[in-house]
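Could you please review the protein record set out just below?
***
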Amino acid sequence: MQTQPRDHVRIADGARYAPTSVVKEEDRVVAPGEFQFAAAYLDHGHIYGQAGGLVEAGGTLTRVYDPDRTRLEAFCARFPQAKPADSFEAILADPNVQLVAAAAVPSERADIGIRVMRADKDYFTDKSPFTTLAQLQRARAVAQETRRKYMVYYSERLHNEAAWHAGELIMQGAVGRVLHVLITAPHRLSADSRPSWFFEKEKYGGILTDIGSHQVEQFLTYAGVADASVAFARVANLGHPAYPGLEDFGEFALVADSGAGCYARLDWFTPDGLPVWGDGRTMIVGTDGTMEVRKYTDIARQTPASKIFLSNGTVTTEIDCTGKIGYPYFGLLIRDVMHRTERAMTQDHAFLAAELSMRAQALADRGRDRQAPSIGRTH
């Protein structure tokens, strides 16, 4: 499988970034029509990555629903095979639809997922999958009751070649036992193109709940973590007084049950001169080696780029993953839905990443409530 840029891959805009692959027929995991899915609630541009990944893996996109006509028409222009549904209920009632992919307003994702699972279908939502721990508790109960999947598009690992391959190398013992994971996750704000809900905390959940869920998920994967606690968390609005509901900076530290640690910093301060939406990086320290993952750019050298820099007891090497790894997650997800397995991601893992990010957010919120306003502070 090889990847290449397409017109709809807007690497400078994270809200619309949708990686694509040039897929050989033998790479598709199902025959045409064998796995049918629908898309709904197109509030975030990540739906294009969700739907595109499933289509490239062989999935058949049959239906789409959104109450906004403009969003619906734009989606159908990109995926003309998707026939508009008159209502979300029509999708839920379609016996041929096996999975519903959605990217609704974050605070609405849990209720939509519960409706999907109660309709005896699997759910594939954009991150963050929840904005409150109460939503998580309800979704957990329904997933257990219905035995349906509530899967999450943690795209910073699942839809990035270097980030995915890093996990494969770690599983092969490339750095030994993982001791610490450090993640930097800058994002471009592009405030003028964002919907109003993006700046309303009760709708997006806070910066750690939202984009922090990516970083928690990566740590759980790379360190092989079954549980962790939040040691430190902070959020702030450091530079955008015009948007008081926005948290433009966040950081947190986790300690796993294995003893492994994680520190992550995330922000909305990607400079305009950078040709990608964020210079995301992950640094991994193990007992036998170290690894750096440069997910989107090798700054001032190559853009776009997806690279791993590995050093261990036998090699020091640069691994260019661009166009070489593909995006195996989507084929694994399709097979999981069809065979009721958990090879792409376990349900416990998907829920734990969300839970820890929300617990970090709650800790940061308590700390912020005790602080003076952070905008314009002088020293």
